[in-house]
Amino acid sequence: MPSPPLDPTTVTALVEDATAAPSMHNAQPWKFRYLSGTGTMQLRADPERTMPKSDPTHRAVHLGCAAALFNLRVAAVHAGREPVTTLLPDPSDPWLLAEVSLAEPAGPEHDLAVLHPAVRKRHTSRHPFTDEEIPDDILDGLRGAALLEGARLYVPEAWHVKSVLNLVHDAEGREALHPEVREEMARWTDTGAKGDTSRREGIPAYAFGPRQHDVTAPMRDFAGRHPVPGRGSATFEKQPRLALLGTAGDRAEDWLRAGQAMERVLLQATLDGLVTSLTSQALEWPELRWAVRDPGSAMGHVQMVIRLGYGPEGPASPRRSVSDVLDIT
User: Fold this and answer.
1) Is the pTM here over 0.85, yes or no?
2) What CA–CA distance (Å, rounded) separates 116 from 270?
3) What is the Cα gyration radius of the chain?
4) Is the dihedral of CA 266, 267, 268, 269 positive or negative?
């Protein structure tokens, strides 16, 4: 039998877990509405948090919102509800990305339940990773996690990693010569010079990580040429371990599946003791994105580059209040 509607405290907890997801520049481009009458949660993209220059097709917006959707599914199972999900339920409303029915009880051994402890523990780490090898069985588990959400995870060989790093450096050069892109990124970053600790969005200075001595890891330097008080420098791993997450298609539904797969991989990696960061610079330039994929693989479109390894956990980035992103009717 259907379960009774969720109380506001439980709904708030679900959305708080959902919004722990990563998003481009931590813009948090999501809105939630819980319809008490039907026990349905709606997920919408927030058009005021888009990046027209860096993300003109809103692909990154879909990825971030989908990561929040996956967290919502995990949290729902943890709360004892089966998240029956419909992607893009209304063709006339493209900002409505998903509806999740939470009216039915979840099974006692749901496969998402084990991931819940990682939802709040997962943080992007922009610190150096060690050179310790990742066991094959862990990588196989991450590949399986992506497949469960309709995407593929490909771990490139050394030559391909070098190619991806070259494309990332190319993208950084293009970004440096594009003032509108730099201004857009500046909107979502805080170098700490003003000492503003009240922001609940964007990338704060304490999450930048150290500056690289030799630029060997695909890490976006959010500070650019601006000095950051108290920021040090470090030597990063010489041979970063990367994974390419991709899909066969490249439409809105593919982006939503990729975003859920991305978050499932990140949560599983966290449970496996790995730390992660996301790299999208080369994917933000259409003329570079096509070259990121391995032409010999079945992956049609790379949606995200994930850096994997062992090392210090990154700090938690700020999050907007649930009251700012949730409406209960």
Assistant:
1) yes
2) 11
3) 19
4) positive
244 φ/ψ sector (left φ>0, alpha ψ -120 to 50, else beta): beta
From the list 132, 161, 112, 85, the residue with the least C-alpha distance to 275 is: 132
Model confidence over 175-231: pLDDT tens digits? 989 999 999 998 998 766 554 567 899 998 888 899 888 878 888 888 777 778 888
Assess contact for 126 and 311: CB atoms under 8 A.
no
* Helix, strand, coil in percent for the chain, rounding step 5: 40, 20, 45
79 with 14: CB under 8 angstroms?
Answer: yes
109's tokens: 């051994």
CA torsion sign for 109, 114, 117, 123 is negative
Residue 244: strand pairing partners:
154, 305
Question: What residue ranges in the chain does DSSP mark as E strands?
Answer: 30-35, 40-45, 81-87, 96-105, 152-154, 211-212, 233-234, 241-247, 275-279, 301-309, 326-328
Q: Is 65 exposed, middle or buried (0-12, 13-18, 19+ CB in 10 A)?
A: buried
- Chain centroid, CA 88 distance in Å: 19
Indicate the helix (H) or strand (E) that contains 292: helix 286-292
Order the strands of the 326-328 sheet from edge to edge.
81-87, 96-105, 40-45, 30-35, 326-328
Amino acid at site 131: D
Structure tokens at 1: 């039998």
CA–CA gap between residue 122 and residue 141 (Å, rounded) = 17
Dihedral through CA 322, CA 324, CA 325, CA 328, nearest 10? 80
